[in-house]
Amino acid sequence: MVNIHEIIEKIYKDRKIKSVNFVGCGGSLACFYAPYYYIKRESDTISSSYTTSNEFVHDTPKDVNENSIVVVASRRGNTPETVVAARTAKKLGAVVIGLTYEKNTVMEDNVDYIIQFKDDDEGLFEESKGAYALKIAYEALHFAENHDTYEQMCEATNKLNDIIVRAKKEIVPEAVKFSIDFKDDPVIYAIGSGTAWSAAYQQTVCNFLEMQWINSGTIHSGEFFHGPFEITDPNTAFLMMMSTGATRELDERVIRFLKKYNNHFAVIDGKEYGMDALGKVSGYYDALFCSSVVGVYNKLLADMRDHSLDKRKYMWKFDY
Questions:
Q1: Which of 298, 238, 242 is nearest to 273 (CA)?
Q2: Integer Cα distance of 280 and 35 in angstroms
Q3: What is the pLDDT of residues 256-303, one digit of tens each?
Q4: Is the pTM above the cut of 0.90?
Q5: How far apart are CA 154 and CA 250, in angstroms?
Q6: Can you tell me the distance from the alpha carbon of 308 to that of 121, in angstroms, rounded to the nearest whole number?
Q7: What is the residue-wise DSSP string for 162-184?
Q8: Which of 212, 266, 261 is closest to 242 using CA atoms?
Q9: 212 Cβ partners below 8 Å, 6+ apart?
Q10: CA–CA dist 216, 207 (Å, integer)
Q11: 278, 156 in Cβ contact below 8 A?
């Protein structure tokens, strides 16, 4: 397991960090929303940005400089836009941390620190890409501000090692029901708020659109009643990623509406699977929890639809 505490401590010995910026594409970008959100909600001294890689290259945030940490991620370590983003950050003097799954990739030549993560079924939760990214965020606040959430965040990360394993087993009946009830839907909308919004986004772009070729859109719970709810009829398909944190009321409002006007929605709620044990910081982990357990849904849905999660029309097959 990579010791993020030691890495961030070493960085802080060499320079004063004023911004922590997260850069990636697709699922790698989605997993960065929770650490970005944590810093924006908790820090008094550090700014943060959350940017898709190619936009970072062409429209780089102004606060990226020698007082910055830039965190990039690419599963295979060769996503062209992300590699260029890492080079861009280094040219501006930032310390660049790269997260990859594969070993010996081009990414390693373009970052200052490389962290290899594991998939959910290969190791502990805290060895996953999203967990390492969140560790970077709360370790940065620890060294910058001695932040009062630090111990709670460390404990929460440790508790998730067991909570997610149990949840992925306990959620199987709901996942089976989802795969049966939603297998024929041509459109499924994903909804969420707080950090869980990014789990909904990842479900839309990576799973429904990319892996299952199901039309989808991501709706923030707070925006649902400002346009999107007009699409609702009894059979409109919705999947809610429920917040356990400060924005839970936004999700509950949407559910009250759907119970009245819709008969075709599913909810993933961490409160039903032990997330309350994380205390007041649970909301910062909602995205990582939901993104992990929804994997059970996606595998069963793929089987039910006879559409492999590895099936692609364009990705990795053409120049684009």
A1: 242
A2: 16
A3: 999 999 999 999 999 999 999 999 999 999 999 999 999 999 999 999
A4: yes
A5: 27
A6: 18
A7: HHHHHHHHHTHHHHHHHHHHHTT
A8: 266
A9: 298, 301, 302, 305, 307, 309
A10: 10
A11: yes
